[in-house]
Structure formats: C-alpha cells, structure tokens
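pipeline/complex-builder :: batch 7 item 3
reading input block
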Amino acid sequence: MMEFFRFLNDQLLKMNWLDDLISLLVENVFGLSAKGRIGGSIHFFLYDTIKIFILLSVLIFLSSLIQSFFPPERTRRILSRVKGLPGNILGALLGTVTPFCSCSSIPIFIGFTSAGLPIGVTFSFLISSPLVDLASILLLASVFNWRIALAYVVVGLILSVIGGSTIGALKLESQIESFVFQPSGSQPEEGNLSCNERLRFAFDQVVFIVKKVWLYILIGVLIGSVIHNIIPEEWVAMILGKENAFSVLIATVLGVPMYADIFGTLPIAEALVGKGVGIGTVLSFMMAVTALSLPSLIMLKKVVRTRLLAVFFGIIVIGLILIGYLFNAFSFLLI
Amino acid sequence: MTIKILGGGCKNCQTLYANTVEALQKEGLSADIVKVTDFAQIAAMGVMQTPALVINDRVVSSGRTPGVKEIAALINKNRE
C-alpha cells in the first residue's frame, strides 16, 4: 500500500518520468550533460515548465469544480451563522476553496461587510483566499514534499485567523468607506448549476487562468533555472543563506512588491532551496509574493482607509517574517 | 430591455460583452447594453463575483462567462 502510494506520488505528482525523459532529451539530442551548468539549466527549464503547466491545468480544473459548490453567496450564508474565533477559522478555511482571482476580492469584501459579517471574519477570508488553495498544496507537495505542503497550509491558515482576529479586535470599522455598508438591493438568484455547467465552468477557469499566468510561470522558471545552475551558490548563501540573520527579512521585502501567484514563484523557491536557502526564508518569500501585491493593495484602498490598509499590511508582513524564522529554526522536522 | 455587464474591465467581462452582443444579434433583438465598472455600483446590486450579467435589473449570472446560446436563453427568459 505504502509502495503504491509512493509510486503515485513519484510518477503523478513529482513526475519522475518527465524528469527522466528530459534528461534523455538534454543528453542525447542537445549532447549536453544534464548535470552540467548549461544542460542542467535547460533541464530545469523544460522539466519545470512542462510539469507546472500539466499540474496547473489538472489542479485548476479540480479546484474549480469544488469552487462551483461554494459561490460567495453560500460562503456568506455559512459564515453568518458563526461568531467570534470559530468565524475566523471558518472564514480562513472557506478562503481555501474560493476564487484566487484578486479581481473578485473587492466585490466579495463589500458583499460580506454589507451583509453584516464582522470585518475580522471577512479579513480572515481575504487573507487565506489568495494564499492557500488546493492547487498550491498539491504543487508544493510535488516540488518539495508533503510535510512542507501541509506546514504551508497550516501556517497560512493560522496567519489568516490571527490576522483577521487582530483586525476584528482593533475595531477599525470606521476605517471602511461608508458606501460599503449600504445594504445591497437585490440578492442574485443564481439557481443550482447542472453537472455540465460545472464542468464547463471548470474548463473555462483552466483556460482563463493558464492564459493569465503563463508568462509569470515562464519568467519564474527562467529565474529559477538561472539561480539553479548559473548563479554561484556562495552569492545566494550570502544574501539569503542560513548564516545571514536578515535572510528572512530580505526575502519578505523582496517578495511583497512582486505580483505573481504561487505557480510563478514555486520554480524560484525550488531553485533557492537547492542552493541551501532555509525553507522558512523561501516560505516567507512565496507567501509575501502571493498574499500581498501592489495591485491588490490599490484595489483594497478603494474600500478601506489608509490606517486599516496599513494595519492589514503590517500584520501580514510581521506574520510572514515570524513564520520564516520559526520555519528556519524547526526546518529539521520538515526535510 | 436593458442589459448590464458588471465587472472591472477584466478579460472575462469583455468576452461576456461580446457574447451578449452576439446573442442579441442571433435572436434579432435590440437592447441597451451598459457596462458597469464601479465596485460600489456592482456591490449595490448584490453581486460578489464578476463578470455578472444583469437583464432588466435581474442578476442572471455571476462569476462565470456564459456562452452565446446560454445568454440567448437567459435573454428570452427575462425579456419582460
């Protein structure tokens, strides 16, 4: 049974068959060593690009199917029944099965708030929504291992719960633009989707998301393959290595302004770990890229005032830095 | 008949707009098509996922991009 699971994990998730195939290609067609500098970079680039695109398509299809059962109207109804900390936990959990498109987060924010949901619960939802989702869990398991994937999920959820609870406890309702609170007139009456409609929705999502992120992925893999085989290990270690006490800080600060999703950052993370960068440093970087970005902050600015935006930003940055140092300290448990 | 396309101008909203125009042509109908891009207005209609299609102030789809055939059916159903 264990053997069978390992086989599935290696061939389907880690795609060892693809690894071997590309090695053959690099060695026999290009005539380069797959372990060498140039050959290794080409191998990394081809293998990672193909792997991420296959996994991305399959995973987005599956997670969109699940999403189609949790439209925000339903999420809001479920959330309105629980109060306090359980509300934050549920908000963070539901954030994992709802859209990762940042263009939806503002209407959802308004929809939740105007329906009377506490802002803390809404923020728990908004933090976890881009940060943790089914696709990212499986991709992390593919590129790293299951323990790191689970740790990422748990930590992401805890950050969402604590972040949301803190914002709730600070009573910052006055920091939200007043139009947000206006109750919405009609409630959309979206009937239940048929099985075919769900499948079509999932297929459309795959096309839409692949179109949206393919360039980020290529850039990510390109940077990854350069780090992987061309940049000397000592350079990377000097800036982001375990000996540099500021490594997590630097990784977070580098990650915040970057706008990509987890699919684009994974190849960079993979290459950095290969160069001996601590797992906590890499997690902080990935989470900073996905959880915070300039476009999403600009969007959020339309509905909240500067102080709440600063609190939101501050909590996440501090949280990410703490996560990074904790993971580095306990990384021996994960690898 | 008034048809509103709700959404902040993302790719899906443009597809929805094009599909709606095509559906109207196919059915030989005319309507005022209005693009709503302001979040406050979108939220005021109770919509949480864009793009959304609103026919005569009724939200008939949100968070997905229905095809020409489905839009034609929705238009016929909500014409009055």
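note: Chain A has one domain: 2-175+196-333.
queue -> next item
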